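Sharing a chain and its predicted structure for anyone who wants a worked example. Both blocks are below, sequence first, tokens second.
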Amino acid sequence: MFLKSSFVLSVIAAASYTCQAQSQLVASQIMASAINMDGIEANFMFAPLANNGGAQVWIEVKSGLSKKFAISPTGGFEYHIHVNPVGPNNDCMATGGHLDPTNVGAAKCLAAKPDKCQEGDLSGKHGELKATESGAIPPQSYNDKYIKFSGETTTIAGRSVVIHNNGTRVACGNIYPFKQSSSPSTSTNSASSAPGGEVQSQHSGASGGQVVVTMAMAVAGTVFGALMAL
């Protein structure tokens, strides 16, 4: 089980807090990525917001991103969604480039102009993961209205999250539908997890696969439902 109980509690706490400002979330297509490589352990969750409004993103780093390890002058770690899944033997180079369906290219991403950034440049839009003495980083959450969950060139499904240390790829993990995300990145699923358009709904009987509920109920229910199913 890749989600530790502390992460589950932090996600639910974040949902309860955030729902005061953002009351609705699509529960049917939640994506997650677990990274556990070379001492770096981190969890990412992407929950679609209603009406194609992007995603609510939750991040928790359990270990590995310490000030001793960071070599960037900013003391932070970049992280992005990359086009391909992780390669055999946890090969982060196999993930290809950043997810960039609008062909922004290598232009510097400015947080003040997220519409001019690559879809996958999460740290460019929302800031780097700041190193700490222990290497653990407290849970954080934000909205990214440019993340997509459908479309062959735009969906984040089947791709990967890559953490960089001053440009060098140091850890990575595949992005799966949440109920299938029971393990970190592996080489055995690379071929079958390539992007394929629409992410299938995890709930039966939903019209068009779009179940819209309050944020707290959506996240708490999905988390505990997935944990019970593992």
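Comments welcome. The CA atoms of residues 102 and 118 lie 7 Å apart.
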